[in-house]
Design a protein that fits this description.
The structure holds 2 protein chains of 2 kinds. By secondary structure, chain A is α/β, with parallel strands linked by helices. Helix content of chain A is 35%, strand content 16%. Chain A has a single domain, classed as DsrEFH-like (Hypothetical Protein Ychn, Chain: A, 3-Layer(aba) Sandwich). Chain B is mainly alpha-helical. Chains A and B meet through helix 1 and helix 4 of A and helix 3, helix 4 and helix 5 of B.
Chain lengths: 167, 100
């Protein structure tokens, strides 16, 4: 029998490519959870994930009310997709998600980034996606350390006990 | 479950070292647990520990950061390598279950 040997996770490199509340928060919770455990955490925001670190959009993230099979009405009934098309519904649902999270002491995006960076976590933006969306470093939150290519990010993600996570 | 002797008092602790009965805790015990984690406790540490003991349920890093005693960066500096877990252990309370 081979001996089982566990290597502890020491570093996580997380890539976030989507802008919905749930995708961004999955990323933020994982990054913060890592620094809370004393691990290194590096986060790379790319494509629509850039919204989470763009000053103009970071506090206005939405959750999709159309094409989201997990979506339910309060009480648990299925949420009709057509209802999600009505103007204002997505904003209302998103506001409700944010208020529910606040009750659980899950902070808004800017404060969450404060928490992660205070614990030594590092935030990066994707150069290619920045060019695509015509964004400049000054459009991004001050939490962002640098704008990198994916290759540069990979080069930071190595070492024993390192994991790369894509959300 | 295991037993440990801190400052001449034998206490029951969980397998990962958290005291089971927080009422047996005192500052001398805290100093010895901290020593095991290579932390020398200062008045600032004790101020945080006091806050943590008073706010045991629903404790989060964010709450400690909003306590007015220490900001989050300072909290990480006081208890390096997992501040919420380490401070809870030293404060003699249960292992925190929060993800934030």
């Amino acid at each position: 029998m081979t001996e089982k040997k566990d290597t502890k996770v020491k570093k996580v490199a997380i890539i976030c490519a989507k802008a919905s509340i749930e995708d961004v928060y999955a990323t933020l919770v994982m990054a913060n959870g890592a620094v809370m455990e004393g691990m290194e955490a590096k986060v790379f925001f790319t494509f629509f994930g850039l919204d989470a670190i763009t000053k103009k959009y970071m506090m206005k993230l939405h959750t999709a009310t159309v094409g989201n099979p997990g979506m339910r009405m309060p009480g648990g009934l299925p949420f009709p997709t057509l209802l999600g098309l009505i103007p204002g519904v997505e904003a209302g649902v998103s506001a409700m998600m944010r208020s529910q999270m606040n009750q659980l002491d899950i902070p808004p995006v800017d404060e969450f980034l404060d928490m992660i960076t205070a614990g030594g976590g590092e935030i990066y933006a994707c150069k290619l996606a920045m060019d695509m969306f015509k964004l400049e470093k000054k459009d991004l939150s001050d939490h962002v350390i640098d704008v990198l290519t994916i290759g540069e990010f990979y080069n930071m993600a190595g070492g024993e006990g390192s994991q790369i996570i894509f959300t | 479950m295991a037993q440990k002797t801190y400052a001449g008092v034998t206490v029951e602790v969980t397998d990962d070292g958290y005291m089971i009965d927080s009422s047996k805790w005192n500052e001398e015990i805290a100093k010895e647990i901290a020593k095991e984690e290579n932390i020398e406790l200062t008045d600032k540490h004790f101020a945080v520990i006091k806050f943590i003991r008073q706010n045991e349920s629903g404790l989060t890093i964010r709450k400690v950061g909003n306590s007015g005693i220490v900001d989050i960066k300072g909290f990480y500096a006081l208890f390096p390598g997992g501040p919420l877990k380490m401070s809870s252990k030293i404060a003699g309370i249960k292992k925190p279950t929060s993800c934030v």
